[in-house]
Design brief:
Elements (H helix, E strand, L loop, with lengths): L1 E3 L18 H6 L6 E3 L6 H4 L5 H8 L3 H21 L4 E3 L21 H11 L6 E5 L6 H6 L6 E4 L6 H14 L5 E5 L20
Parallel strand pairs: 1-2, 1-3, 4-5, 4-6
Helix pairs in contact: 4-5
Length: 206
Protein backbone atom coordinates (compact mmCIF):
# COMPACT_ATOMS: atom_id res chain seq x y z
CA UNK A 1 0.00 0.00 0.00
CA UNK A 2 1.14 3.53 -0.80
CA UNK A 3 0.31 6.59 1.30
CA UNK A 4 -0.59 9.81 -0.48
CA UNK A 5 0.68 12.73 1.58
CA UNK A 6 2.00 16.28 1.26
CA UNK A 7 3.82 18.24 3.95
CA UNK A 8 1.43 21.15 3.40
CA UNK A 9 -1.31 19.04 5.02
CA UNK A 10 0.38 20.01 8.28
CA UNK A 11 -0.71 23.60 7.73
CA UNK A 12 -3.00 24.89 10.47
CA UNK A 13 -5.54 26.39 8.09
CA UNK A 14 -8.41 26.93 10.56
CA UNK A 15 -9.23 26.78 14.28
CA UNK A 16 -11.40 23.65 14.10
CA UNK A 17 -10.35 20.22 15.48
CA UNK A 18 -9.66 18.77 12.02
CA UNK A 19 -6.98 21.42 11.48
CA UNK A 20 -5.35 21.10 14.90
CA UNK A 21 -1.55 20.89 14.98
CA UNK A 22 0.04 17.53 15.68
CA UNK A 23 -2.67 15.35 14.13
CA UNK A 24 -0.83 14.61 10.89
CA UNK A 25 2.49 14.13 12.65
CA UNK A 26 0.94 11.56 14.98
CA UNK A 27 -0.41 9.53 12.05
CA UNK A 28 2.82 9.80 10.07
CA UNK A 29 4.79 8.38 12.98
CA UNK A 30 2.86 5.12 12.55
CA UNK A 31 3.44 4.93 8.79
CA UNK A 32 7.23 4.94 8.60
CA UNK A 33 7.35 1.70 6.59
CA UNK A 34 5.15 2.94 3.73
CA UNK A 35 6.12 4.76 0.57
CA UNK A 36 4.82 8.33 0.56
CA UNK A 37 3.45 9.69 -2.72
CA UNK A 38 3.18 13.47 -3.09
CA UNK A 39 0.07 14.67 -4.95
CA UNK A 40 -0.57 17.74 -7.08
CA UNK A 41 -3.43 20.07 -6.15
CA UNK A 42 -6.75 19.58 -7.89
CA UNK A 43 -7.61 22.24 -10.46
CA UNK A 44 -10.82 24.24 -10.71
CA UNK A 45 -12.26 21.99 -13.41
CA UNK A 46 -11.88 19.02 -11.06
CA UNK A 47 -13.79 20.81 -8.30
CA UNK A 48 -16.52 21.88 -10.73
CA UNK A 49 -17.26 18.24 -11.54
CA UNK A 50 -19.21 18.09 -8.26
CA UNK A 51 -19.45 21.64 -6.88
CA UNK A 52 -21.09 24.80 -8.18
CA UNK A 53 -19.07 27.80 -9.29
CA UNK A 54 -20.52 29.82 -6.41
CA UNK A 55 -19.30 27.28 -3.86
CA UNK A 56 -15.84 27.20 -5.40
CA UNK A 57 -15.67 30.99 -5.25
CA UNK A 58 -16.77 30.94 -1.61
CA UNK A 59 -13.98 28.55 -0.63
CA UNK A 60 -11.55 30.59 -2.71
CA UNK A 61 -12.42 33.61 -0.56
CA UNK A 62 -11.14 31.75 2.52
CA UNK A 63 -7.50 32.21 1.52
CA UNK A 64 -5.19 29.47 2.77
CA UNK A 65 -8.16 27.13 3.23
CA UNK A 66 -8.67 27.14 -0.54
CA UNK A 67 -5.07 26.15 -1.24
CA UNK A 68 -5.13 23.28 1.25
CA UNK A 69 -8.60 22.14 0.13
CA UNK A 70 -7.39 21.90 -3.48
CA UNK A 71 -4.41 19.89 -2.29
CA UNK A 72 -6.67 17.54 -0.31
CA UNK A 73 -8.84 16.95 -3.37
CA UNK A 74 -5.69 16.33 -5.39
CA UNK A 75 -4.60 13.76 -2.81
CA UNK A 76 -7.87 11.89 -3.17
CA UNK A 77 -7.52 11.94 -6.96
CA UNK A 78 -3.98 10.54 -6.73
CA UNK A 79 -5.08 7.75 -4.39
CA UNK A 80 -7.94 6.84 -6.74
CA UNK A 81 -5.58 6.75 -9.72
CA UNK A 82 -3.17 4.49 -7.84
CA UNK A 83 -6.02 2.17 -6.86
CA UNK A 84 -7.18 1.97 -10.46
CA UNK A 85 -3.67 0.86 -11.40
CA UNK A 86 -3.95 -1.99 -8.90
CA UNK A 87 -2.01 -0.33 -6.06
CA UNK A 88 -3.98 0.02 -2.80
CA UNK A 89 -3.57 3.56 -1.52
CA UNK A 90 -4.42 5.55 1.59
CA UNK A 91 -4.85 9.31 1.22
CA UNK A 92 -3.56 10.97 4.39
CA UNK A 93 -5.19 14.31 3.65
CA UNK A 94 -7.02 17.18 5.28
CA UNK A 95 -9.39 18.98 5.31
CA UNK A 96 -11.98 16.19 5.12
CA UNK A 97 -14.85 16.35 2.66
CA UNK A 98 -17.91 14.15 3.12
CA UNK A 99 -20.11 16.97 4.49
CA UNK A 100 -19.50 19.11 1.40
CA UNK A 101 -22.40 19.08 -1.08
CA UNK A 102 -22.70 20.79 -4.46
CA UNK A 103 -23.49 24.24 -3.07
CA UNK A 104 -22.44 24.20 0.57
CA UNK A 105 -20.31 22.56 3.22
CA UNK A 106 -20.04 22.21 6.98
CA UNK A 107 -18.44 19.90 9.56
CA UNK A 108 -14.86 21.03 8.85
CA UNK A 109 -15.28 20.15 5.14
CA UNK A 110 -14.85 22.42 2.10
CA UNK A 111 -14.59 20.31 -1.07
CA UNK A 112 -15.87 16.73 -1.30
CA UNK A 113 -12.55 15.01 -1.94
CA UNK A 114 -13.84 11.50 -2.57
CA UNK A 115 -16.63 12.71 -4.85
CA UNK A 116 -14.19 14.78 -6.90
CA UNK A 117 -11.85 11.79 -7.27
CA UNK A 118 -14.62 9.42 -8.37
CA UNK A 119 -16.12 11.92 -10.81
CA UNK A 120 -12.72 12.71 -12.34
CA UNK A 121 -12.22 9.03 -13.14
CA UNK A 122 -15.78 8.77 -14.50
CA UNK A 123 -15.48 11.94 -16.58
CA UNK A 124 -12.24 10.67 -18.09
CA UNK A 125 -13.87 7.39 -19.09
CA UNK A 126 -11.58 5.39 -16.81
CA UNK A 127 -14.45 3.95 -14.77
CA UNK A 128 -18.21 3.75 -15.06
CA UNK A 129 -19.32 2.41 -11.67
CA UNK A 130 -18.11 3.08 -8.15
CA UNK A 131 -18.96 2.15 -4.59
CA UNK A 132 -18.19 4.65 -1.82
CA UNK A 133 -18.04 3.07 1.62
CA UNK A 134 -18.17 5.70 4.37
CA UNK A 135 -16.96 4.31 7.71
CA UNK A 136 -17.11 7.61 9.58
CA UNK A 137 -19.43 7.78 12.58
CA UNK A 138 -21.29 10.65 10.93
CA UNK A 139 -23.40 10.28 7.79
CA UNK A 140 -21.73 11.82 4.75
CA UNK A 141 -24.67 13.95 3.71
CA UNK A 142 -22.62 15.81 1.14
CA UNK A 143 -21.46 12.67 -0.65
CA UNK A 144 -24.94 11.14 -0.54
CA UNK A 145 -26.45 14.33 -1.96
CA UNK A 146 -23.93 14.66 -4.78
CA UNK A 147 -24.59 11.12 -6.02
CA UNK A 148 -28.30 10.89 -5.18
CA UNK A 149 -29.26 10.96 -8.86
CA UNK A 150 -26.29 8.92 -10.12
CA UNK A 151 -27.22 5.21 -10.22
CA UNK A 152 -23.70 4.18 -11.24
CA UNK A 153 -22.26 5.44 -7.94
CA UNK A 154 -23.45 3.73 -4.75
CA UNK A 155 -22.96 5.43 -1.38
CA UNK A 156 -22.89 3.12 1.65
CA UNK A 157 -22.87 4.20 5.30
CA UNK A 158 -23.18 1.27 7.74
CA UNK A 159 -24.87 2.28 10.98
CA UNK A 160 -25.12 -0.86 13.14
CA UNK A 161 -24.53 -0.13 16.82
CA UNK A 162 -22.53 -3.10 18.05
CA UNK A 163 -19.03 -3.96 16.89
CA UNK A 164 -19.97 -7.39 15.57
CA UNK A 165 -23.09 -6.17 13.76
CA UNK A 166 -21.20 -3.28 12.20
CA UNK A 167 -18.43 -5.49 10.80
CA UNK A 168 -21.02 -7.93 9.50
CA UNK A 169 -22.95 -5.10 7.86
CA UNK A 170 -19.82 -3.83 6.10
CA UNK A 171 -19.16 -7.29 4.66
CA UNK A 172 -22.77 -7.70 3.54
CA UNK A 173 -22.95 -4.26 1.94
CA UNK A 174 -19.76 -4.79 -0.01
CA UNK A 175 -20.76 -8.27 -1.16
CA UNK A 176 -24.13 -6.97 -2.37
CA UNK A 177 -22.72 -3.91 -4.13
CA UNK A 178 -21.89 -5.82 -7.31
CA UNK A 179 -18.80 -5.58 -9.44
CA UNK A 180 -17.96 -1.89 -9.25
CA UNK A 181 -14.98 -0.56 -11.17
CA UNK A 182 -13.59 0.96 -7.98
CA UNK A 183 -14.34 0.86 -4.25
CA UNK A 184 -13.50 4.12 -2.48
CA UNK A 185 -13.47 4.37 1.31
CA UNK A 186 -14.31 7.58 3.13
CA UNK A 187 -12.16 6.72 6.12
CA UNK A 188 -13.18 8.56 9.24
CA UNK A 189 -11.94 6.85 12.38
CA UNK A 190 -14.29 8.27 15.02
CA UNK A 191 -15.94 4.87 15.52
CA UNK A 192 -12.73 3.79 17.26
CA UNK A 193 -13.07 2.48 20.79
CA UNK A 194 -11.04 5.47 22.07
CA UNK A 195 -13.03 8.06 20.10
CA UNK A 196 -16.64 9.27 20.11
CA UNK A 197 -18.05 6.08 18.60
CA UNK A 198 -16.58 3.68 21.19
CA UNK A 199 -17.21 0.82 18.76
CA UNK A 200 -14.31 -0.52 16.69
CA UNK A 201 -10.87 -1.75 17.66
CA UNK A 202 -7.69 -0.92 15.77
CA UNK A 203 -7.53 -4.36 14.16
CA UNK A 204 -11.03 -3.88 12.72
CA UNK A 205 -9.69 -1.26 10.32
CA UNK A 206 -7.10 -3.58 8.76
Amino acid sequence: MKVVYHDDYRTVYASDPAAAPGRMESILSELSGYELIEPEPAVEDDVLLVHSRSHLEYVKSLGVVYRIALLAAGGAIKAAELALEGEPAFALIRPPGHHASRDSSWGFCYFNNIAIAVEKLRAGGRIKTAVILDIDLHYGDGTASIFSATPDVTYLHPDSRSREEYLREVEELLSSAGEADIVAVSAGFDRHIEDWGHQLHTEDYR
